[in-house]
Amino acid sequence: MHFSEQTLFGIFKACCLVFLFALLSGTAKVQADPGQNDFPEFPIIRNNVDFWEKIYSNYSLNTAVIHDQNDLTKIYEVVTLVDQDLPEARRINNSHLETIKEKYTQILLRLSAGHPPETRDEKRVANMFQGPSTHRRMQFAAENIRAQNGQKERFLEGTVRSTKYINRIKQIFHEYGLPADLAYLPHVESSFNYEAYSKCGAAGIWQFTRSTGKQYMRIDRHVDERRDPLISTRAAAKLLKKNYEALGSWPLALTAYNYGTSGMVRAVQSHGSYENIFRNYEEGYFKFASRNFYSEFLAARKVAKELAGNHARRPETSDIQRLSSPRGSADGDTATRSIKAVPAVKNTAVSISHSAAKGKKHPGSEPRLRLYTVKNGDTATSIADSANISVQQLCRENNLNAKAILRTGQSLRIPKQASDTQEKETLQSTSANKKRSAAATTTIKNLLHTLSENTLGPLKDTPKKTLLVAA
User: Fold this and answer.
1) Which CATH architecture has domain 370-415?
2) How far is CA 301 from CA 120, 197, 245, in A?
3) 319 burial type by CB count under 10 A (0-12 exposed, 13-18 middle, 19+ buried)
4) Which of 88, 248, 444, 446 has its CA 20 to 30 A from that of 230?
5) CB 436, CB 424: distance < 8 Å
6) Of all helices (H) and strands (E), which one includes residue 466?
């Protein structure tokens, strides 16, 4: 069979149209996300998002919410804690929270056994469990009581701190073809504190572990680029883009940022959609933190935008650090050459009394550290002498041993020494604090005996609030 040239061209044209139609149809399927939104708020997580919004915007650092970790609408009690700066506050607060959690465990077990509610607390808890299988659900809930500290002041502090980087971070994500709103993720990870370190060794505003971070950045005994906000942002963009390409949606890609890409790939293979994974997946380390990670991101994004939209009173010294113009870089995304901390935040809508992670500063305090770039001919002794510190201090601050060799261009952390007047004032303040702390310790010990009786009175549909007041 022979075809004319015109006929062959017509067949070729028809095939191209079919292929183009198929391609467009496939694209339409990929973009048919719920609500055609990069970050959909699925109905199944709406209560979780609401819970985290309240944690970030309503509940203070000195409060803890006692709740059901599987149903975040069930809040059993809101506890006011001892000030974290008081002696033994951590031990006292932990002991108190364990006592409160055990109280609700026993209430739930008693009610699940069929005993009628008698006390005000038992009646309040019983009203939370209506419908079928009440006793079985109560028994299950008794094993899932959790305490969550409020984050209101810390989130505000992070929002103020983020003003230095947020626009540049959004620009970097745009360069990688990613949604700009991913820039709000550090609110969940670190409150934009570049000095933040987790218990498992994750560091910087994006909380990279060493093993993951080494795939995208330089991390060794001399340089840790996880602590550079812009370099680590490029690393985060690469990792998030990799997650999205492997999983096909941002709810899954963001959850993988916490849980791991390979783990989420297995979850998708066994459960399919994000909603099914959220509802049913329980393998490996997929626990409360991973299940709630995407909900926390949505809540943090919303609260941060509301704070920015409300034009909260923002001090002129809102920058937490300043990056000098690095050498040999067109856009400034190289390791930090010089960091200057600014005084603690003042005159904000909520006073900030606690900083995230290590670099805690107090109002009016001077920066504790500065960075020094090693020059040709420098030695540890010469650097220490010029900074008026000992060689031992220099080595201790930079995790150097006696055999460590300095190299030109290396950044060193230099402790700043207080003036004689500042040192005298600090010693006087410390002495006064010790006296107040000793008196506060005695008061706290006395309060522990009457702690369970110090309440706000009867509440019906809202959780009871226990007050632990320190003199």
Assistant:
1) Roll (3.10)
2) 38, 22, 23
3) middle
4) 248
5) no
6) strand 464-466
Residue with tokens 């670099």: 359
Write out 259-275 in H/E/C secondary structure.
HCHHHHHHHHHHHCCHH
Cα(397)–Cα(350) distance, integer angstroms? 33
Q: How many Cα atoms occupy the beta-carbon half-sphere of 358 within 13 Å?
A: 14
Q: Look at residue 32 in the predicted model and tell me its pLDDT.
A: 34
Q: Provide the pairing of β-strand 75-80 with 63-68.
A: antiparallel
Tens digits of residue pLDDT in 61-108: 999 999 999 999 999 999 999 988 888 999 999 999 999 999 999 999
CA distance 103 to 85: 27
- Classify 153-309 by CATH class: mainly alpha
The percentage of the chain sitting over the pLDDT mark of 70, rounded to a whole number, equals: 66
Cα distance between residue 342 and residue 321, in whole Å: 7
* Span(s) in the chain for CATH 3.10.350.10: 370-415
Residue type for 102, please? E
How many helices (DSSP H) and strands (DSSP E) are in the chain?
Answer: 17, 6
The pLDDT score that the predictor gives to residue 248 is 94
- Distances in Å between the Cα of 285 and the Cα atoms of 71, 258, 281, 289, 290 are 19, 10, 10, 9, 8
Cβ proximity of 251 and 39 under 8 Å: yes
The dihedral through the CA atoms of 355, 360, 362, 364 has a sign that is negative
Answer whether 274's CB lies under 8 Å from 264's CB.
Answer: no
Identify the residue whose tokens are 């490029």.
234
Instruction: Quote the pLDDT of residue 19.
Output: 46
State the Cα–Cα distance between residues 18 and 11, nearest whole angstrom: 11
Cα 79 from Cα 100, distance rounded (Å)? 9
Confidence of residue 259 (pLDDT cuts 50, 70, 90): very high
Contact 48, 75 (CB under 8 A): no
The H or E element containing residue 67 is: strand 63-68
Statement: residue 36 has pLDDT above 70: no
pTM: 0.62
Region(s) of the chain under CATH 1.10.530.10: 153-309
CA–CA separation, 266 vs 270, rounded Å? Answer: 6
Record the tokens describing residue 5, joined without a space.
Answer: 């040239």
